Amino acid sequence: xxxxxxxxxxxxxxxxxxxxDEVIGCGGTIARAVEGASEVTVVVMSIGGVKHCxxxxxxxxxxxxxxxxxxxxxxxxxxxxxxxxxKDMRLETIPMLEIVTxxxxxxxxxxxxxxxxxxxxxxIDHRITYEAALSSLRPGVRRISPTLVAAYEDTVIxxxxxxxxxxxxxxxxxxxxxxxxxxxxxxxxxxxxYPQTTSIEAVRRLAAMRGLESGFSYAEKFSILRLxx
Length: 229
Hints:
Oligomer: single chain
CATH architecture: 3-Layer(aba) Sandwich
CATH class: Alpha Beta
Number of helices: 6
Distance between the termini: 14 Å
Largest sheet: 7 strands, mixed
CATH superfamily: LmbE-like
């Protein structure tokens, strides 16, 4: 009997704290799923309204939305949404109930079979997104329950709380590494030179390291939060 463990789900949701986390953490996985005929929806929690200290200028919300649209187009994302414009790095100002309820509405309507969320990190928006996603994905809610919930990483892999006590999933993205990089390049306002973490070389090297761990040229690594087969 042929195993269906690694068949791509028909409908996949990726929840991203900011516009670029989704491609850094699982851009290759998104592209592979699309090639496997999956419909991928990306939900970005916050975008725009902040000047980061590592960038010379503040990108406008319209510019960031344009970058998100271009990146999504590169990866073949079916739909993308931004829940809280102008709240980049300010998610803590929004009641958690409002954040969870917004995700509940998306999950209630989407019928998603797989959901990818960010690992918690030093970044408060990442921590809030992770906690809100866990709340929305709680057992017992009357909706289709995803058979896979997994958390993706970013390039700041050693500057965060202790890792989750979970199994790991590796996805081979070797044939799609250049597509992932091309999609990341659409976020031109956010990219920095290596050895900064938000750089093309940092993303490529992380994928190469995960490939080394799993026997591929390039891979993406996920922490498995729930897997039902």
